[in-house]
Amino acid sequence: MKISAPMLPLTALALIGAAAAGAQVPAPVQQPQAQAPAESEELVVDVEGGISAPMPIAVPYMPTPASVSTQAGETGALGRQVAEIVASDLRNSGIFTPRGPAGLPAISYPQVTAPDFGYWGGTGSQALVQGFVQANANGTLTVGCYLYDVYAKKELTRQGYVVEPRDWRRAAHKCADAVYSRLSGESPFFDSRIAYIAESGPKDNRVKRLAIMDSDGANHRFLTNGQSTVLTPRFSPDYKQIVYLSYVDKRPRIYVYDIGSGRQRVVTESTNQTFAPRFSPDGKWILYSMSVNGNTDIYRVSANGGQPVRLTNTPGIDTGGSYSPDGTKIVFESDRSGGQQLYVMNADGSDQRRISFGGGRYATPEWSPRGDLIAFTKMAGNFRIGVMSPSGGGERLLTNSWQDEAPTWSPNGRIIQFFRSSQGRSGKSTVWQVDLTGSHERQIPTPLDGSDPAWGPLLP
Amino acid sequence: MKQIGLKIAVVAAIALTGACAQKPKDLPPPPGGTVVDPNANNGGGDVGNAIIPGSRADFLQKVTSDRVLFELDSYTVDAEDQAILDSQAAWLLANPNVTVTIEGHADERGTREYNLGLGDRRANAAKNYLVSRGVPASRMTTISWGKERPAAVGSDESAWAQNRRAVTVIPQ
């Protein structure tokens, strides 16, 4: 699942495209890198919420210079699907109101680099995304992606992606990422994957399977067959492995699953239960919890195995450890004070300090990849997803349902996924996401019920 | 297992009265609804009506209950639990070749990972009490299921009370 060739500057791509299309496309004008416009002129969209309404953005279907049948389908059909994915990603970010691609006029290939600003200006769309899909002689696809400021009548960014046909959706996500980043100033996140637990069957005998999918739910794949209960997966930073809890042989222990080979191995041999595994940001360490005669502490072990190091030794249940993005600190939960609360310690276990004091119980802390916030589950009546600063200030609750649990961060630290359980004998779990304003909440489509989502980093 | 279910219902009802809880929407079946025939086939270990000594069926017939229930967020073995575990200890001492697994469970109103720790606490609380009654620790293994394997599937106080449990499981 890799982009097969380095990204080419789109200028080159467009020229190639022009040549292939019989030089119908004017070569894009080489513009000197413009000075950043004054802030009042800059087209921006506000991720933090605040006063801005979602930005209207037009995403017409993307044409192809020549209809070619590829392993991923016909290039014209792919162009339509890429535009649909871009619009869907932008809508799901919560900060855009995409228009199209359905219902918008068809764009010709030459128009991709020469948009009809007069027309788009009359539609109320502030920004415009155009692009194309082209089959290359070597079997790859080129997806071009152009972002325009409709009112200023200028191009804001252009990107070209050369991908294997099977990775065509990644090109669409990268286009959406380019648009999102350029207009919000935030880091990209659509081109990423999610590991989670697919659930089925009755509540008292639920079948739980390890599964992975793209950030929008596409390319879904089951990794385990459900014979053994599995829980709490986490991707390694390079996406090559997943660490998780399995009840194989009726012994709950943490395993590493190698996605390439499908092999699984025990991380650390013990007769005690090991659980709550997390990779360190550099992938070298695995943090986990181990219960010894009713007492649970947090340990660290090399991802390759070896001698574990115990990091906590307070009576009680210490679990749910999560590294800060620089790897120097760990946030975890402990009931040492009588109920579950959040604590931060140095990566070697020193200087353990409680950071949650808001009343109720706090659990499942996850440090944002940006480093600025810690997401958690707060239990006070309902179970709700919230965030606070690493020093414990600025608590904000983002959801309010009967039972929301186990937040996981988007790669850019702007969106949180979690799982939501419903009540009763037919109660089930589903995967949801919410942005940091708390106002954009939606369910992630999964073929079965789902829990324990774990969002990986931006794909390499 | 019907016999066990009935005993749980009674215990749950007592717990409810004691806690002065709101009337749950989903009450356990009233006592008397299930008449237990002591000679009924209770599953594994039976040959005709004869229960094999040392079998699961023998255990379930002889002990007060195969499980102890816990208060919210607690792993305290109270007097009622002690009486149940005393009956289990007596059986285990009379059947010294049987090894058992003690399963610890939690109700659904906790987070998944914490509940794995909590289930481990409960399993070990039961195990440690049995050890204090002379059952060798080497004959008992523990496993925590957290909230993954509820005994009652409702989302109310009576279901949660039945799910906060440690169950002594004899090999079939």
In a few lines, what is going on in this structure?
The complex is a heterodimer of chains A (460) and B (172). By secondary structure, chain A is mainly beta. Chain A has helices at residues 10-20, 75-92, 117-121, 168-184; strands at 55-58, 69-70, 73-74, 96-99, 127-135, 141-149, 154-163, 192-200, 207-214, 221-222, 230-235, 241-246, 253-258, 264-266, 273-279, 285-292, 295-302, 309-310, 318-323, 329-334, 341-346, 353-354, 361-367, 374-380, 382-388, 396-397, 403-409, 415-421, 429-435, 441-443, 449-458.
Average pLDDT taken over every residue of chain B: 81
What is the name of the CATH superfamily of chain B?
A: OmpA-like domain
Biggest interface found? A-B, 44 and 29 residues
Strand content of chain A: 35-45%
CATH first level of the largest domain in chain A: Mainly Beta
CATH class descriptor name of chain B: Alpha Beta
Helical content of chain B (DSSP H or I, runs of 4+): 40-55%
- The number of domains of chain B: 1
Label the overall shape of chain A: globular
What does this structure look like?
- The complex is a heterodimer of chains A (460) and B (172).
- Chain A has four helices and 31 strands.
- Chain A has 460 residues and is mainly beta.
- Chain A folds into two domains: 10-29 and 46-184, 3-Layer(aba) Sandwich (Rossmann fold), CATH 3.40.50.10070; 192-458, 6 Propeller (Neuraminidase).
- In chain A, the strands form eight sheets. In chain A, strands 4-1-5-6-7 form a five-stranded mixed beta sheet, with helices on both faces. A four-stranded antiparallel beta sheet of chain A has the order 10-9-8-31, with no helix packed on it.
- The radius of gyration of chain A is 24 Å and the shape is globular.
- Residues 1-40 of chain A have low confidence and may be disordered.
- Chain B is of the alpha+beta class.
- Chain B has one domain (2-169): OmpA-like domain (60s Ribosomal Protein L30, Chain: A, 2-Layer Sandwich).
- Helices cover 40% and strands 15% of the residues of chain B.
- Chain B contains five helices and six strands, in the order H-E-E-H-E-H-E-H-E-H-E.
- Chain B has helices spanning 2-19, 56-62, 79-94, 112-132, 157-163, and strands at residues 46-47, 50-51, 67-69, 100-105, 140-146, 165-169.
- In chain B, the strands form two sheets. A four-stranded mixed beta sheet of chain B has the order 3-6-4-5. Chain B has a two-stranded antiparallel sheet with strand order 1-2.
- In chain B, strand 4, helix 4 and strand 5 (140-146) form a beta-alpha-beta unit.
- The radius of gyration of chain B is 16 Å and the shape is globular.
- Classes of the chains: A mainly beta (460), B alpha+beta (172).
- The A-B interface holds A 202-206, 208, 229, 231-232, 245, 250-252, 273, 275-276, 289, 291, 293-296, 317, 319-320, 333, 335, 339-340, 363-364, 377, 379, 383, 403, 405-406, 421, 423-425, 427, 451-452 and B 73, 75, 101, 108-114, 116-118, 120-121, 123-125, 128, 143-144, 148-155.
